[in-house]
Specification:
594 residues; alpha/beta; ABC transporter transmembrane region fold; Rossmann fold; 2 domains; six-stranded mixed β-sheet; 18 helices; 60% helix; 10% strand; elongated
Length: 594
Amino acid sequence: MFEMIKKVFKSVREYKIYAIITPLFMIGEAAVECALPFVMQLFIKEMKPDPAGVLDITFADILPYFIIMLSLTIISIACGILGGRYASYASSGFAKNLRKDLYAKVESFSFENIDHFHASSLVTRMTTDVTNTQNSFAMAIRIVVRAPLMLIFSAIMAFVTGGAIALIFVVAIPVIGLIFFLLARRAMGIFRRVFKRYDALNESVQENVAGMRVVKTFVREDYEDNKFSTASSNLSKDFIKAEKIVALMTPLMNTSIHVVYLLTMFFSTYIILEMAPGTLDANGDPIWGSFAPETMSALLTYGIQILMSIMMISMIVTMLVMSLESIKRIYEVLNEESTIVNPENPIYEIKDGSIIFENVSFKYKKEAERYAVSNLNINIKSGQFIGIIGSTGSGKSSLVNLISRLYDVTEGKVLVAGHDVRDYDLKTLRDSVAVVLQKNYLFSGNVRSNMKWGNKEATDEEIIKALDIAHVDNFPDRLDRVVEQGGANFSGGQKQRLCIARAILKKPKILILDDSTSAVDTKTDRMIRKSLKEDLSEMTKIVIAQRISSIEEADQIIVLDNGEINAIGTHSELLKHNTIYQEVYQSQTQKGGN
């Protein structure tokens, strides 16, 4: 628990000074508020009449008490305001840093780490969980300091002023504390389930928004509404259960306050009556013993402060119960170590685009029963054009993901330019390998800003050249054309060509096209391949395709089947000797295929 809290609250950083100052003001506020009843007690004592009922007191006698009480009040208000102000700085800054740290951590994750967390869960952790943690932190540096100190100071002063009668509070405090502890323990289990419901709700929203076109095409709005309603109802039910438990704290606290208040009044009154004045002291004042009406007034005030402190502590407990689960979920992300890290002494130069697979096997999870790819032995020379073909699920994408270390091999090794990819600096490796994935994504902005993702220093001339190689449509002001989020205002083929141009701008040693011309017509596909061969002859090009026409001119074609290499050869060699390749070719040329 301590390690978890320590890890999360490292994000306070430059706001630590505010987090330290705030409790100091809270200490001042608590001390002053506890001093006020004592001064009031002295004031009431000063206001007592003589035995004849005459109040022999002047304004000059009460002025010092007025000045002291006013000063204490002003100090208390100032401490409260400054404490709240600095607590806001500290908690808001902490939340800002925490979100930044979470985002940076997620950015550092490998694909394997990302697979461990759902995207909807990560969103919840960076929003709802951070907000809960921020609120608990603000409360911790204010009320968590103030309430216990008020409790301690008030209890001490209660004993100083009331003596043994203050034992009422000593008995009440642990009884009330035990009740709150049991309620909090019960509520915590439910709150833990609530955050999982949040994840499910966010996942439903995310999936529905991302697939809105499909939902509307198949007229499935009612189905999605019901799915969201179910997730929302489950969240609501758990929240109601938890809130019912938490809601018990307030009536129990009020009942405790009234019971303790009545007991204090009863015993105080009894003692005062038993010690009623019968004689006068040397100054003519009535003798009350050790307990007088002004003592009862101060004791009741301290009693209320003690019980209000307990109520504040109960509120803290409630908030902490909720936030502890949020802190735990944030800690899980911050404590997750990327499965792919830089070596101790990385290589910062990649000389060429040669690639060798030596007895490579890979599976996405250690506990998985079967490998995604196994027993791969491939030798690719720098500058070659390599085609990869195979049925869905044969391991084509898994194979190329290993080259840029999006995943690490389970067995064997992948060599680039004669060195194991695990020996290279990650940035150096990934700058030298450009991958155009099956799912193309463009960012909101314009064509120019999207192209600069490939090379932020690229000139307009270089961008235009890359667009021409990828055969992106030539139209006026094409660099300034607006790109909506995800490239929604472009067709599938246009997005693919823009993503190819973006990859070319990286000027990589190795270019991987993962079925990235599937939405492009055959003629344009042929023109892109021709441009790649003529303009980027020194670059190693790996093309994954479903259409044989996209890879028939490759130097080597790799046929994958069930994660293993079925055959390697040229187009003509495979047509003569490989059954799988022959069947695919015949289906695409003789039965209406492309």
